[in-house]
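Exercise: predict the structure of this protein bound to zinc ion.
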Amino acid sequence: MAIFAKRALLSTGWANNLRVEIEGGRIAALHAETSAQTDDVSVDTLLPALANLHSHAFQRAMAGMTEYRMAGRDSFWTWRDLMYRFTTHLTPDQIQKIASLVYMEMQEAGYASVGEFHYLHHQPDGSPYDRLAELSDRIMAAAVETRIGLTHLPVLYSYAGVGKKPLETGQARFGNDVDRFCMLVDQAKDALGNLPEDCRVGIAPHSLRATCSGDLARVLATHGEGPVHIHIAEQPKEVSEVMAGLGARPVEWLLDNVHVDANWCLIHATHMTEDETQAMAASGAVAGLCPVTEANLGDGPFNGPTFLNAGGSFGVGSDSNVLISLTEELRTLEYSQRLRDLARNVMVVGEGSVGQTLYCGAAKGGAQALGRDAGVIAKGKLADLIAIDCQNPALCALTSEQLFDGLVFSAKDEVVTDVWSAGRHQVRGGRHVARDQIVSNYQRTMADLLAKL
Ligand code: ZN
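Solution:
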């Protein structure tokens, strides 16, 4: 198949009247200054699609249910309590139907792929399903239905806090020791055969709170080839807990005690000193930023200027999925910096377009974090692509140099007309090809679930 684009951003810069030939999910050939052929899919402007590097799909079902202030000050930890109550009722089928909706919404927003940080493993009482990886299978089934590019990241979650605190009741569905976790990962890797070739299985030690140094070393020795994702420093309370238990701040401890490299993605590296920020950038690990969720949960802003100046890689994820919007994610990232620094145009090194720095940086860093050979449009890369409609009023007056600024700061996701996940053309005319079925399944699922809550 082939796409004909009036304009496209290649790894070498802008090209006009471009034909992109796709074979086996990859870009087989690029011809600029040519014309469309019969059967080509014609689009306006073609860009590399982003990876959504951090998702807990099931949390989408709670969106809008945690914004009501109760007695006392609401906080991250009371949000977490509700999330735990919610998880005790979810069935495997419900988890699958919710994930399908989430992945469909991601593709419609312009994401070609997703990193699913998957910690719901067991039955509500904590006992494993007959097949240990039952719920990984359900996530994969949602990827099959939507045909999104999945990097599945089963989570190692063994303790309630630093110092091997035993799991609490609400955490029963998450828990594994290293041996059972490795069995689960092996099962998930076997199940990859049911998915397209671009899909991957990595691992996610949940956080320094939920594992210990010995377990971390063991799991990395067995399954550490990457991608490896970890929640690292989301909340000040987490930083003080790790300092008290491990004698160092979380990012500092991780970099000093574990070989962290470009196969790693540190989610919510929110609370870092200047030294930690520079050391993390130098490690090659991707900063997994989730600006909308981090704002929703009151986590705090990322140390963007220091990280970018030190050459750090970053990508974005929708995490709690309270809102799935690519443009909102990128603009919230920049606005969080502006609000803190009382400044404009923060997330760019030297001079240049903030929108392009954010978009193209997140495209490359997101692909790296998910272990996808994507992030730019170039021959041989996976065909993770989005088309946007530059006749939309938000974009029609802008030059190519201004396009990303318009996209990030002034457009809604409705400008996305088409999305390909490794060449699979799943969004056409702004709608996912399986939208009607997925939405009606989700509506039925939520009615059943709410009747039980
Ligand atoms: Zn998360």
